[in-house]
Each structure stands twice: as structure tokens, then as C-alpha cells.
Amino acid sequence: MVVFQAYVDDTNKGNEPVFALGGLLAPVEKWLRFSDAWDAKLRESPSIEYFKASEAASLEGQFRDWDIPARDRKLAALIASVNEHAVAYLGCAVVRADWRDVFRGQMSKTMDSPFYFAYMRIITNLINNMYYRADLGRVVEFIFDEESETIYREILDFWLATKVEYPARFRRRMGNAPIMRDDRKVVPLQAADLAAWTFGKMSDASSPCPSMAISVRDQLTVAGIPELWAKHDIETFLTRCKERGRERGSEWLGEYETGKERSMRLNELLGPRR
Questions:
Q1: Is residue 23 classed as helix, strand or coil in its secondary structure?
Q2: How confident is the model at residue 248 (pLDDT cuts 50, 70, 90)?
Q3: Torsion-angle region of 105 (φ positive above 0: left; ψ -120 to 50: alpha; else: beta)
Q4: How many structural domains comprise the chain?
Q5: pTM of the prediction?
């Protein structure tokens, strides 16, 4: 059975209007070839040690002292490697102000920010799409860029619960549990960073979209599986959460789960933090 891997990174974890995840999907053997191709493009003159989209956009870091035409040529070469090897482009963006208006103080410390929700959605959206599209593979594993241990433990808890509670058609497509890796060492995560940065900028209606994001979007030829969550969608999601809680006779929405209570829950489920 061919195993697919989804490499996913996030962007805009500060005060930006939109929090976004972006990623790329391909079979394992294609990622091995991609890593060699991407590394070769990095080393082509003028060379860089690694790629980070925010540095390319601002001409800082690895792109300090570059001009825009040289940057765009490097970008085009890297995007060509993505188009050759990736099967699908993933995205989940959440409007922060809308999320705060709907969820702040409603359920738990975890749900007060869109981080966990976006990771959960990028997993479920891809696997649901895999059910309907044979070209997206049969089994998928997720590799995320390094995130806080708390968020990772919440993702792992969601994954393990899904393995038990979701329909068989869904569970059959779930490979090994998600892992987190360093994007400086795992180059597909550098491509995921480009996808996340681009989707985040394209989803932010509060400011003009940077020309680099538009250029990347126009050059990417892989199929897209994006989601943008604004107020109406978030309100609908909260309503469904409450309905499911009532159906199960649960009072979990009646009391707010604090950060301390979250830590105790995760320690009980997964063991103490490392």
C-alpha cells in the first residue's frame, strides 16, 4: 500500500489578522526525490542554506542583499520542484478576530486560539478528500513543523480519539500518529512554509496581498484543498459542537477548561510532559 505524507507548517502566530496552516502532500518515495531536488536548487548560485518565505518576502536572513529578480528566479526554481513532486496543496486559515468573538471563554484554554482547531481541520479535511479522490492516496501520515509541546499533545490526543470514534472509512486512511520535525533539517517542511505563508497572505482581506504571494499562487500547479474560516463558519462549528455535546449527554460545555485542567487531562491521557 502506498503511504502518502503531508508536510505542514504554520504562519502568523503573532498578532496578524489571519492564522494559517499550509502544506503539501505526496507519496513517500516522491518526497525522497523532492528532497534531493530542493536541496540542489538551494545550492545553485546564488546559494542559500535553507528557505523561509518571510525572509524571501522581506529580503532578509538568507535573502539579505538580494534583489527582487534574483529572489524570484530562486523562487521559480523551488516552485518547479514542488510542482514536479507534490500531489496536493493543503491550507487552513482562520480569521483571528472572528475566532475570538465566537470562541473566547466558551470551552477551554485550548479553543481560545485557533491553533489546535486549524491542525485538526487540516487533518480531517485531507482525509475526507482522500475518501472521494483516489489520486490522493489511501493512507496518510502528517509531519508538522516544530510547535509547542502542548499543541502537539492536543493534536496527538485528537488523532488517538479519532482512531477510535470516527467511521471506518476515515480510520483506514490514518497511518502513524503525527510527528514534529525541524524545518532546517527536513526540507519538505521548507516547501510547506512557502505554502503556509502564501495561503496566509492570500486569505488576509485586511491588507493588500504581497506580489510574491500572488506570484507563488500563479506558479503552483498542484491541486488545492484549502479552507478559510470566518465568522459564520466558526459560529456554525460552535453550534454543532454544542449539539454533539447534548446528544452525548455531556456537560463539557458547561464548565470552562482552564490551562491547568488541560495539563492534568493530557497528563492522564498521554503521560507527563517530557
A1: strand
A2: low
A3: left
A4: 1
A5: 0.94
Interatomic CA distance for residues 144 and 151, integer angstroms? 11
In this structure, the number of other CB atoms found within 10 A of the CB of residue 76 comes to 13
For the chain, the straight-line distance linking the first and the last C-alpha, in angstroms and rounded, comes to 34
- Output the CA torsion 160→89→149→107 (10° steps): -70
The x, y and z cell numbers of residue 25, run together, are 502532500
Is 262 within 8 Å of 255 (Cβ atoms)? Answer: no
Domain that holds residue 25: 3-270
Can you tell me the distance from the alpha carbon of 158 to that of 165, in angstroms, rounded to the nearest whole number? 10
Q: What are phi and psi of 25, to 5 degrees?
A: -120, 140
Query: Range with the lowest mean pLDDT among 40-49, 222-231, 239-248?
Result: 239-248
CATH number at residue 79: 3.30.420.10
Comparison of pLDDT for 232 and 131, the residue scoring more: 232
- Find all residues with CB under 8 Å of 27, minimum gap 6, and list them: 2, 3, 4, 5, 87, 137
Across residues 232-259, what is the average pLDDT? 78
Rounded CA gap, 101 and 105, in Å?
10
Residue 8: name the closest of 209, 164, 160, 152 by CA.
152
Average pLDDT value for residue range 67-75: 98
